Amino acid sequence: MRDADPDPGSGSGSGSDVDVVVIGAGQAGLSSAYHLGRAGLDHVVLDHAPRPGGAWQFRWPSLTYGRVHGMHALPGMELTGADPDRPSSEVIGEYFAAYEERFGLAVRRPVDVSAVREGAAGRLRVESASGTWSARALINATGTWDRPFWPRYPGQETFRGRQLHTANYPGPQEFAGARVIVVGGGSSGVQHLLEIAEVAAETTWVTRRPPVFRDGSFGEAEGRAAVAMVAERVRRGLPPQSVVSVTGLPLNEAVRAGLASGVLDRRAMFDRITPSGVTWDDGRRVDADVILWATGFRAAIDHLAPLRLREPGGGIRVDGTRAVRDERVHLVGYGPSASTIGANRAGGAAAREIRRLLTLTPATDRAPAGRTASR
């Protein structure tokens, strides 16, 4: 790893009053903390995970660093010389730990934020079992890993086999000799399916929509178009879409082999779950020992509920990273900034905008300009 800029410092703050609280210490949170330090803003980073690494520390062992798509270095320090055969959880966890140490970020963990609500004198009150912080602004960088999405289907509670989600995926070894149904058309579902098929007795792939495979390179123009589509939903106050729903699945060598062998022979979504498997209304059935739900995640933003930031469409409407309903709140790693490179850029943008806000707004003001009046 290569050091770049001088240490900007973390400005961890004294006591419970700070300029900015950052919630989450993944790519989005660390990038934000880096830029807040360079901007000279007093801040603290709160992370509920037990150790550095963000959501990467919870990834399954078979997801090696060489199989990770689009991992961009954090600002100010490159990740170089990593062994592609090592688990990504180890490689990126060590990189994040070194990054925190290099820039003196002093992340406080484990701190599980339970609620952010209106505080005194125009401040935000950030509550947790580990303490309460009062902040003039907030960067929420909590990602999605803590909110796995489990669809509901008739008969689901009757299934006698095992049901688990990508969030609890242990790797392929536990599925040896089993009949496995993988649900979901994203990258994780495809990766799970391809490696489970090597050891399972039988695999079945089901998705709500036919998968779209992307052949060829995914360049800068395609990336901008994908980000623009996600950003448009967020501007309308709708929940962000999954990345694959916008970009499609990369048609790499492993996927081509899976298509040729029939492993990636997709079936339409089943209609009911039975004690022994799943059925379709046309009479088809598949018996199974395991149903693996690779059905994605939702934004982990329930702790922001007291601020009433959600729109009728279910999402938080943002302008850049700023929540439209409250200019003190910024969401980094949400919607168009959910990628690692997007989180890097968004962290810098959020820090700059917060610095302008705090410069223009005296700390004693009770109602920062631009906030929604009806609360």
Give the topology, please.
Elements: E1 2-3, E2 17-23, H1 27-38, E3 43-46, E4 77-78, H2 88-102, E5 113-118, E6 124-128, E7 131-140, E8 162-165, E9 179-183, H3 187-196, E10 202-207, E11 213-214, H4 220-235, H5 243-247, E12 249-250, H6 253-261, E13 266-268, E14 272-274, E15 277-279, E16 285-287, E17 290-293, E18 318-319, E19 322-323, E20 326-331, H7 340-360
Helix pairs in contact: 1-7
Poorly predicted ranges (pLDDT <50, ≥5 residues)?
1-15, 365-375
Rg value: 22 Å
Any idea what the shape is?
A: globular
Count of beta strands: 20
How do the helices and strands follow one another from N- to C-terminus? EEHEEHEEEEEHEEHHEHEEEEEEEEH
